[in-house]
Input
Amino acid sequence: MAGRIVCLPGDGIGPEVMAQALRVLAMLPVDLEVVELPFGGAAIDLVGDPLPADTLAACRGAAAVLLGAVGGPRWDGGAVRPEAGLLGLRRALDVYANLRPAVHGAVDLLVVRELVGGLYFGERGVRGDGTVFDTCEYHPSQVERVARRAFELARSRNLRLVSVDKANVLETSRLWRRVVTELSSDYPDVELRHALVDSFAIEVALAPETLDVVVTENMFGDILSDLASGVAGGLGLAASASLGDSGPGIFEPVHGSAPDIAGTGTANPAAMIRSLALALEHAFGRRDLADAVGRAVDDALATAPTPDQGGAATTTELGDAVLASLEHRLTTEEKTWATTPS
Output
């Protein structure tokens, strides 16, 4: 396995958790070039742009992009915000399908969030009378491609898909429901159910173990995937993969830059390391390595939990525990990693 990974540590705790993921990557029997570049607020400080041209060009040419976190109060009120770089990168790479797994005990659900359309990318502004507006728009093709991805994922799991919308109120949701229903005829083996976002949130909170794959639009997916992460142990454990039909995916934790704990050495790197595992699986086809890294993270959380998980381990100490588990697997259980493809 060869290729290039572009690493964008970003802001706040981003560089701290990224460092632990790169320690894990260095231990694996893979041949990958790692390139680290500025992004987000850090790039604003350097060149005045959260997504510099050189950074974007490198991302376009990579096999995968690892992202730490962006944003923080020091850039609030500026002419450009770090988050603009993130939205710009998602749009440029057209990573329309955001995969947000939530796994904990009996819970094993996957939220598939449409990532480059809807309210976050629609027209916005301020009218002369002071009214502020944001526009939610979707084209049928945008709905079709992310729904097809979700059906395929459901087919590889437990054959159950819930499509979430607000079709009793919103025209975009009526389009969403119509397109997903029409597409379901291509997947007769997948059980499709439609749900309204407000009542479905109760299902996620109270009965997440009954759910398999969930597909929804951008803003609903943002909210529901955070809720799912909460019931599965918290944002410190939640990883994500943002995928398109071609080009590199973006792999990042969902916890944000957490400026309140940046520099304290207490950030949980589990989500960042799990995001690396998703990159190994989806960008490089090494499900074996991805599973091994995931198991090592589980071991580390049990033996060296960070404060958000009720323990006292530092960021580096949890990273040490992951490495110790991986080393054990390298020398005993997983001797075929370097030669056996997934």
